[in-house]
Amino acid sequence: MIVIVNYGLGNLGSVLNMFKRIGAPAKITSDPREISEAQKILLPGVGAFDVAMKRIHEAGLFQVLNILALEKKIPILGICLGMQLLTDNSEEGGMEGFHWIPGKTTKFTFPDGSPLKIPHMGWNEVKEKNPSPLTAGLPKPSRFYFVHSYYVKVADPAHSIMTTSYGLEFDSVIRSGNIFGAQFHPEKSHRFGMQLLSNFAGI
Amino acid sequence: MLSTRIIPCLQLIDQSLVKTVQFGHHGYIGDPINTVRIFNELEVDELCFLDIRATVENRVPNLKILSEIADECFMPLSYGGGVRDALTARKILEIGFEKIVLNTADIVNPELVTRIADHSGNQSVIASIDVKRNLWGKYHVYSHDGTRKTDMDPLEWAQRLEHLGAGELLITSMNQDGTWDGFDIEIIKRIVHAVSIPVIANGGAGSIEQIGRVVNETSVSAVALGSMVVYQKKGMGVLVNFPDKDKLSEILPTGRI
Q1: Burial, B94: exposed, middle or buried (Cβ in 10 Å; 0-12, 13-18, 19+)?
Q2: Which of A116, A184, B88, B240 could bridge across to A144 with cysteines, CB 3.0–4.6 Å?
Q3: Cα–Cα distances in Å, from A5 out to A40, A65, A77, B214, B217?
Q4: Residues of B in contact with A117 (CB under 8 A)
Q5: CB–CB contact B95 A13 (8 Å)
Q6: Catalytic residues of A
Q7: What is the secondary structure of B230-253 as a DSSP string?
Q8: What CATH number has the domain bearing residue A39?
């Protein structure tokens, strides 16, 4: 069973809907006990970094998730803000991230008059840096739907699975062992997202 | 590179899909669920649904039909029509829609933009502006499905909406709606320059060339298509379709996959 962690932020229905279409058993819950028994975790998220970390702490999920990630080593996938939470910290706030994948989350800044808008919103391509079971079999090129104002740069290039260009090159899929992150919304990215989530279901 | 989004913009009246001409006469298109299945197969960038009569008929959004739509779609979705409060907006977002479109509600109650943006982020609010050019070339903002003229200037209103927290603007030309005659390039260009948030051009799409023209001449972030994606050709029968992706990629600066 894939457990979609509900901490009050994110479009959870769409993620569940795509797992249903794939035929992968999944459920949405905020109950720490149910989460602690998960075989796989999907950490969604839309919104602000600090709000998300605070809610995770308040819901008693911080330690539960750390045990799953670092001791039980079950597969964990963070999407959008959920991926940014895997890093050390974010310019968006002062709270600490999970530190599971060393890296920083930084705000996009473009000079005045740049045609690039913030957030980076819409369909963009991904470039493979390192192979991974999450991204195996994706068509080349693949495109995904992004909505974000902050981007991730991992400290160790080996943790960068895919990158995307928007004014600069940032990490759009990251991985360290059993921990995965995707900056885009696979649940809103047609067959490309479906391939990725069905890979996750099969890991 | 980020692609210019091409968005089928579908008009609902409760459970039926329709298409208007210049905000007046509407033709019946069919059942929305079958239609969204086709757009999902066609892998369109995004879908926008507007219940054009919800406000004037004093209806609330039909959550049942919206939830059936969300179950069929694996692309970003937006909905507008009869959203008068933040709680309703939140319910629609929870169903699986990414964005709420406000038109009359943001004129009646501008704070609603801010309330939804504060809770769910600016990217979740599309402020829609219906504009009409009069015989002397002056533009006015209209509300209530184009039935009420306001004294607001479209540019000032666009800037105010950005300030209130809207993440995107949907600009619909009432003169061009359903005509297949091309976009109102002038007003789109002026609004794109007046704000820093993405603008979606709507009203008048009839050919790939016209899509190319509005994108290349105004730098809009997205283009909405109405008649073109639900009819075979102007004056002909219903056919749910999408412009040829190879032809679009030739004409758009950013290409597509």
Answers
A1: middle
A2: A184
A3: 10, 10, 11, 42, 45
A4: 196-198, 221
A5: yes
A6: 80, 185, 187
A7: HBSSTTS-B------HHHHHHHST
A8: 3.40.50.880
Which tokens go with B11? 């008009």
When divided into structural domains, chain B yields a total of 1
Q: What's the maximum distance between 2 C-alpha atoms anywhere in chain B?
A: 47
Cα(A172)–Cα(A163) distance, rounded to whole angstroms? 5
pLDDT digits (tens, 9 = 90+) for B191-224: 999 999 999 999 999 999 999 999 999 999 999 9
CB B32 within 8 A of CB B65: yes
- The ipTM, to two decimals, is 0.92
Contacts 24+ apart (CB under 8 A), B137-144: B139/B187, B141/B107, B142/B174, B143/B103, B143/B104, B143/B107, B143/B108, B144/B55, B144/B56, B144/B104
Q: Is residue B257 part of a domain?
A: no
In a domain, residue B256? The reply is no
Which tens digits make up the pLDDT trace of A75-100? 999 999 999 999 999 999 999 999 99
B78 assigned to some structural domain: yes
Hey, what amino acid is at A175? R
B151 among known catalytic residues = no
3-state helix, strand, coil in chain B (%, to 5): 35, 25, 40
CA distance A188 to B80: 19
Provide the domain limits for residue A9: 2-202
